[in-house]
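agent> Task received from the user: take the single chain below, predict its 3D structure, and emit structure tokens. No templates, no multimer pairing.
agent> Plan: (1) validate residues, (2) run structure prediction, (3) serialize to tokens, (4) report one or two observations.
agent> Step 1 OK, no nonstandard residues flagged.
tool_call: predict_structure(input=
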Amino acid sequence: MSNSGSITGFYRPGNGGEAQPADARAIIPALADTRGLLWLDLFIRSDEDGRLLEDVFHFHPLTIEDSTSPRVDPAKVDDHGEYLFIVVQALTEYREHEELESVEVDFYLGANYVVSCHREPVPAIEAFKERCRRDGFILTHSADWLLHGLLDALVDEYLPIVDAVDDTIDQLEVKVLHRPHPQLLQQILIVKRNALRLRRATTPQRDIMNRLSRGEYSKLVSGEAAPYYRDVYDHLVRIEYLVEALRDLADGALQTYLSVVSNRLNEIMKVLTAAATIFLPLTLISGIYGMNFTHNQFPAYEDAWGFPVVVGTMITIAVALLAYFRYRGWI
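)
tool_result: status=success, residues=331
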């Protein structure tokens, strides 16, 4: 594999030769070889890296702007006659305590070439390059088959992320029931946002695969390749169902957290209320004995047994109230 700056790729000659690395010098001859196959992968670091798209391929300026822009565009497919411009979204590596990030990947599909563009590293594309190095058979088909392989590799990365999010929700539910704390609430909200991001990524791409598989672009996507795009569409439909289930599970985990916290708060309030109720008559008695009466006007004020009797009465009242609360099941 040769590498000229941010360009890597493969070229299979139309005369039946084996696939070979492709660099900037091989692009023009490869494009002229209508029976061959060219795949270029562009790692866009600046607008200058996208100059090749304009100078050599003469792509539409709006598509070049989408490819070089740092923003992440929604998935779409545009028909420009001699080529298709397809925008899809890959996902970054899943980390339990972090939000998923989308990485835009743009594809140009021509009669004998595929150009992929992205501004961030995409593990699925790098893995597909390794497959091409090990197995040259992947590059023996036409450009629409190559594009299918790339799209299928990107979609295959979704399912492990969905499974990882599902496992995270299960762990959070166990932790919530054991000991809820504010940090768990933050993790649950991150999971909810990750599920939403998965849904936003899969739904538009599902529609794209449906359009590619039903013969809408028969000039560039052959009837033989269309069922394979349909298979990618089916994968996205299944992933979308799983993502909807994840959203329900995340909502359930949030409701469980709020319910557990509310129940714990109710238990605490019951204990505090019972304690306040028990001390209320004791405070009343001590308050009465703290009033400024003369000794002759207040019973048992000067007797030796007066203080123990009052204290004993207060203890008796407290124990009686505590026993009554336990009998009623209030504490």
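agent> Step 4: summary for the user.
Residues 111 and 247 are 41 Å apart (CA to CA).
agent> Done.
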